[in-house]
Structure prediction request, 391 residues.
Amino acid sequence: MEAQPSIQWSQYGIARSARWRSERGAPPPQRVVIADDGTSADHAYGLACQGTGLMWRGDFQNARQMLNALASRVDRPARRPKRGAVAPAPEPEPPVGTPAMAAAFHRHRMSRSQRARTLGMLLVELDAEYAIGLGRAPDLRQACNEVYGPSDGPSVASLRELLGLVGAHEWRTRGIDVPPAGGRIHPHYGVFAPVRREYVDLVAQAPLPAAAPSVAFDIGTGTGVLAAVLARRGFGRVVATDQDARALDCARANVDRLGLRDTVEVVAADLFPDGRAVVVVCNPPWVPARPSSPLEYGIYDPDSRMLKGFLAGLAAHLAPEGEGWLILSDLAEHLGLRTRAELTAAIETAGLRVLGRIDARPVHPKAFDAAEPLHAARAAEVTSLWRLAAR
Prediction:
């Protein structure tokens, strides 16, 4: 069994160590110093940029202010114009679908990764019950238990990640109202949440095949939202698959909460379950790029592995007159990471034909915010449900 990562530091001349926790897979800092309310933001920023961890020993709310101060320093322009000088105009975005746009995308990802590493240097210690021994610290025990599981002793995590756990706990508690699913969907930490409604609406509105709605498969179910939509559309049996343990737990909890346990079966599988179905739905990650952390697997599909696997195995799992519903954004095409010709060639190579396609424009705020990085690609995005059948 692989040893659990640990972090070491010194306080008052005493060597300390604890379990290191990072859901994004970041390694523990090799050098750690003590920081508190008297530490200046500029000094903390310099240390964080060097990869030095800052073990916080001051007030918790002041730690949050320090994190905000570090973020403002990370995000400010590298060079400010001299007093009286005219700031240079920002460089225009490259044309969509070009190698230049792909290069801009990769630069943006590298910048975001470096930002996460720097902000992840502000550290907080948790005791054996996930309590934080700092002034004005909130009770994060339930949020930590939901993500980390039962505690096995003191641990250390970045403040930024702990705040992410809090946000995930709030999402999980409140849920997201998804009328086509028949109620609220409660996403768990690390499971892609159905905040973008266009893909859900596409599954809710697509015409059903001529065959009776008997069995449907939902490949890579995540929260189980699409499995619930299929059940509401009249399928007597829906098999929802995933290979991520958190997604399986999340989907089962949502299925139970929506009263669909007798209709929807959630099973662990890499893509397809056994058998054939009238409708086989798959909403793979839309961007063919390598995730930089485990939490990014809901967004990035390295080398289009899931997309290609779904297409390659679909024909063998379709019932007579059955259809495969591939839900895919064309954002990758606008980013210059995949062409439409490559997608249609993969469909043809898999022995499939296109029966039709239903398109939807995104309604999320990033599509309309000109200040967003890579806005030109986001503004051109279309999400489609491809209706596929065996040749």
User: Anything to note?
Assistant: The longest strand covers residues 318-329. The chain has two domains: 6-80+88-170, 177-390.
